[in-house]
Amino acid sequence: MLCQICGKNPASVHFTEIHDNTMSEIHVCERCAEEKGMHTPAQQHQFDIADLLAGMVDSMTNSEEERVGHVVCPRCGLQYSSFKETGRLGCSECYKAFQNQLKPLLRRIHGDTRHRGKAPVRGGTAGAALRHVQRLHDELQRAVEREEFERAAQIRDEIRKLEAEARAAVPGSPS
Amino acid sequence: MSAPIDFAGLFATPAPWLRGTGPHAEMVLSTRIRLARNLREVPFTHRAKDEQLHGVLARVGGAVQASPVLGGGLLLKMQECSAIERQVLVERHLVSHELGDGARPRGIYVAKDDRISVMVNEEDHLRLQSLTPGFQLAEAWALADAADDELDGSLEYAFSDDIGYLTACPTNAGTGLRASVLIHLPALVLLEEIQRVLKSIMQVGLNVRGLYGEHSEIMGNLFQISNQTTLGRSERDSIESLERVTKQIIETEERARERMLRDARTQLEDKVWRAYGTLRYCRSIQAKEVINLCSAVRLGVAMGLEGLCPLRVVNELLVSTQPAHLQRLAGEEMAPPERNLYRAQVVRERLAAAEREAGESRSS
Ligand SMILES: [Zn+2]
Ligand SMILES: [Zn+2]
């Protein structure tokens, strides 16, 4: 087997990656492994993502592909078919342009399609407040599961307070 | 934590994650938090023009300088670094291979607190990272989160309410978070329990990377464990589950180490001291061999065998014996056979210096 980087020397260093219960392997020669500093595991990010994605997008049927392949992002001009080849989107607007195709893909990758993490402070407080309430609901559920009822009651009070505040706020006011 | 003023200053100081300090440093080398962010108005790096990327470098530069957490540090533009300098940054885990290619307008900011850095124009416009020694996810998260909030004050991130932070690759969309620990598991490997442990890690949805040599033998006994998904869970959730699983692995490795000490103390001591002897007196050595021998010595140090070098020294050897570090230290390019000779010299001298320091501290 030849090295997957230089294609010249025999591959003698093998990296194993485990993803979704499948193992994939990278084979490189001693020299390339050393040159590329691949002797520490923290540095192998580069190999997996495109492969993983290619595999996932491939699971689409051909007719579906025909249909969505020509969708183009109006802002950066990227075609969906070229996203499929590279696994990289062209700009933030692509997420909107390809949202119908991306939803199932995101679900397959992450098992979910809704963001539950932090948000930019300056990105508008309305969205942030909504997410905060959603987060509290998630926390409430966990507290109930763990039978931490005192904590659950606290969270419930906080949610009520926030929802009351949201109702009191004037809609459309600048934030 | 003083600011490196230039590349030479950075090179002269061992990477902060090698300090051998922090909780569980005997097992966990480093904890890393990475956040992927993009500017809303600019196409993602691979699709942006070079002028646009110069613009990103300038804007991120301005935001970094305005930030109390990040400002006052060092900016290295990849196009202005030599190939060896770029590779040194990769070997220090500061820069990814993609950034280290140096072909496009890319750069890295190393903050005054050198545990924090920002890669600019990697796959995403910003890859903010905190890299701390030992097992300290909460600390690493606090550092990255604070730096992220400060940059957010002067940059407009690509973000949507339902998908979260938008990234070039959908595998990072959402939190853009990759939390990881680099952990040393020699006892589990020696007792052949590692496959079972690795399998259980991936069954709970975490990602594991290991380093394998010929015939699939594990090298260095180093593993990186990280979260796999970024959408549908908060940062805190992802970090907590990595923390929980890592704690279990630490306990499992601890029990394996205790068993080895009880059942095979002599063989273990013999293995450790032979490894130390080889490192201390070798005349030509490959990077791969250094990694494997350091693993044995590291285990000996962690188990409290007397007379070995401090953890910090073993950690530093892992990085300082990599090809670019060697060549930068030598001040010249070297072919692999030459490097093996020089590497042996560097290792011997470092261990001799550590022995002298230990002798002095005993006699004083
Ligand atoms: Zn090769
Ligand atoms: Zn686009």
Topology:
The complex is a heterodimer of chains A (175) and B (364).
Chain A: E1 13-19, E2 22-28, H1 30-35, H2 49-58, H3 62-69, H4 80-86, H5 94-97, H6 99-110, H7 125-145, H8 149-168
Antiparallel strand pairs in A: 1-2
Helix pairs in contact in A: 7-8
Chain B: H1 7-12, E1 28-37, H2 50-66, E2 74-77, H3 83-91, H4 97-100, E3 107-110, E4 116-120, E5 126-133, H5 137-154, E6 159-160, E7 164-165, E8 177-184, H6 186-190, H7 194-203, E9 206-212, E10 218-227, H8 235-281, H9 287-302, H10 311-320, H11 323-330, H12 336-363
Antiparallel strand pairs in B: 1-5, 1-8, 2-3, 3-4, 4-5, 6-7, 8-10, 9-10
Helix pairs in contact in B: 2-5, 3-11, 8-9, 9-10, 11-12
Bound molecules: zinc ion (ZN) (2 copies).
Describe this structure in words.
The complex is a heterodimer of chains A (175) and B (364). With 175 residues, chain A is mainly alpha-helical. Chain A has helices at 30-35, 49-58, 62-69, 80-86, 94-97, 99-110, 125-145, 149-168; strands spanning 13-19, 22-28. Chain A has three domains: 13-44, no CATH class; 49-110, no CATH class; 121-169. In chain A, a hairpin with a 2-residue loop joins strand 1 (13-19) and strand 2 (22-28). In chain A, helix 7 (125-145) runs antiparallel to helix 8. The longest helix of chain A has 21 residues, at 125-145. Chain A starts with 12 loop residues before the first strand and ends in a 7-residue tail after the last helix. The relative contact order of chain A is 0.06. Chain B has a domain at 265-359. Chain B contains twelve helices and ten strands. The two termini of chain B are 28 Å apart. Chain B is 49% helix and 16% strand. In chain B, the strands form two sheets. Chain B has an eight-stranded antiparallel β-sheet. The model of chain B has no long low-confidence stretch (mean pLDDT 91). In chain B, 55% of the residues are buried. Chains A and B meet through strand 1, helix 1, helix 2, helix 6 and helix 7 of A and helix 3, helix 5, strand 6, strand 7 and strand 8 of B. The complex binds zinc ion (2 copies). Residues 73, 75-76, 78, 90-91, 93-94 of chain A line the site of one zinc ion.
